[in-house]
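Box S1 | Example of a co-folding query
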Amino acid sequence: MKLNIRIGHGFDVHAFAENRRLVLGGVDIPHTMGLLGHSDADVLIHALCDALLGAAGMGDIGRHFPDSDVQYKDADSALLLAHVVKLLEAAGWGIGNVDITVMAQVPKLAPFVADMRVRLAELLLVDQGEVNIKATTTEKLGFVGRKEGIACEAVALISRL
Ligand SMILES: Nc1ccn([C@@H]2O[C@H](COP(=O)(O)O)[C@@H](O)[C@H]2O)c(=O)n1
Ligand SMILES: C[C@@]1(CO)OP(=O)(O)OP(=O)(O)OC[C@H]1O
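Box S1 (continued) | Returned holo structure for CDI
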C-alpha cells in the first residue's frame, strides 16, 4: 500500500569562524563568531532542506546545490530552501510540519526562535504552528560543547497534495 505521508530527517554541522555572519533559520544573529561554509552556512536551513529532500526521496542538498558550483558561493540558504519547497510541490508534495533541534553551546538562541519560525513558515508556505524550533547546548561536551561549531537535526512530514 502506498502511503500519502512520508517522513524525512536531516543533519548538518558547520564550524565557527571569525569574520563570518551567523545566520540560522534565515535570521542574522549577533555573535562574536559566524559559521564557515561555501554558502552562508545556515546550518539550520541545510538540515531542513535535507529533511524535506529525504522525505520526498530526492537525495540531499549537495546533489541539488553542489559546493563545487560558484553560483552557490555565499548563497543565501533561504533561497535554496525556497527552491526545495518548489521541487517538492512540482513532485506533488505539500509540507505538513517540521521539527528542528539546533545544538549550540553559544550563543543563546531562545530570543531568536520566534523570528526564525516566522521566516521559515514564510519559506515553507505553512502556518507558524507547523514549525517548531528547539535549541540545546551539549553541556560543554564534544565539538559543540567546545564551541567549535553548531550542529542541527531536522525532521519533516510531507503529504501528497
Ligand atoms: N544555544 C542555546 C542552547 C539552549 N538554549 C535554551 O536553553 C535551554 C536549556 O539548554 P540545555 O542545553 O540545558 O538543554 C534549552 O531548552 C533552550 O531553551 C538556547 O536558547 N540556546
Ligand atoms: C549549501 C551548500 C551549497 O554549496 O554549501 P555549504 O555552505 O558548504 O553547506 P554544506 O551543508 O556543507 O553543503 C551543502 C551545499 O549544498
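The first helix runs from residue 43 to 56. The chain is about 30% helix and 30% strand.
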